[in-house]
């Protein structure tokens, strides 16, 4: 088990280094000159003399390999440079906004799990029933409605008309409800479908027939065996979506004026704030890798066969 985890951790390192290389390459291949972008953000008229000075200050006149190695050293120290707009360290700006995004991510995941697990499980064991049809309808709805439209719809009904929740901002638990629901609905659609299909598949497995033959109570079979095995694809999907939620809640944060990392990235993109954009991309890659590692470890405890397959390879 420990060997499997160690192998998974080791595989993360070259993947992350590849992500840094791709990010470095895209920044240098893009038509945006970081020195010019900095001067524009600082409202300074770019001249050839000032541009040359800033390129030297940023190290852009050095060989690409030297620039890349310096970039790796700085990234390992969480040094992503200074924001062109605020003139503050990028990591300081990002770390002050990450808690808000984490709060939104956790809220949406909790809502998605509380709805999709019972709904998908009941839809699977009661195929073609009323609850199964409702789960299909909800899945279709969640996969079809754009997040920005749903967000404005929830604001209109629950904030403007009913005055139950705040329109925007952050502060109390009420501020969290509407953006969390907006972010959770596509997850509910995905997880409900995954769990329903997995339950139907596991109900056809021989271990269910053997358990029934031995006279084990149906509730024990469904709860202890079928649900435990069927939930595995959903956990995998959750691992793939945690990083997406942490870095991809851009639209929801913009609609609800949520002071998170995604909204900060939008502002940085419009301002051509290269250090912030680089930090966002690398943080996204790191979150995807870490969340998938955590999910693999959880999957290993649920199904020990994963660990044995890892040792065989």
Report on the structure:
The chain is mainly alpha-helical and 313 residues long. It has a domain at 93-274: Orthogonal Bundle (MetI-like fold), CATH 1.10.3720.10. The chain is built from 15 helices and no strands. The protein has helices at 2-29, 34-41, 48-58, 64-76, 90-125, 130-144, 147-161, 173-203, 206-213, 218-230, 232-248, 250-255, 261-270, 274-302, 305-312. Helix 11 (232-248) packs antiparallel against helix 14 (274-302). The relative contact order is 0.14.
- Superfamily at the CATH H level of the domain at 93-274? MetI-like
Percent of residues in helices = over 70%
| Relative strand content | under 5%
Mean pLDDT: 82
CATH topology of the domain at 93-274: MetI-like fold
- Which geometry do the CA atoms define? flat
Question: What is the level 1 CATH name of the domain at 93-274?
Answer: Mainly Alpha
Structural class: mainly alpha
Q: How far apart are the termini? A: 13 Å
Q: Which radius of gyration do the C-alpha atoms yield? A: 24 Å
Q: Number of helical runs?
A: 15
Unreliable residue stretches: none
Order of helices and strands: HHHHHHHHHHHHHHH
Largest sheet: number of strands, sense, barrel closure:
none
Tell me the CATH architecture of the domain at 93-274: Orthogonal Bundle
Transmembrane segments: 9-29, 102-125, 137-160, 172-191, 238-260, 280-302
Protein name: Nickel import system permease protein NikB
Membrane topology: Multi-pass membrane protein
Subunit structure: The complex is composed of two ATP-binding proteins (NikD and NikE), two transmembrane proteins (NikB and NikC) and a solute-binding protein (NikA).
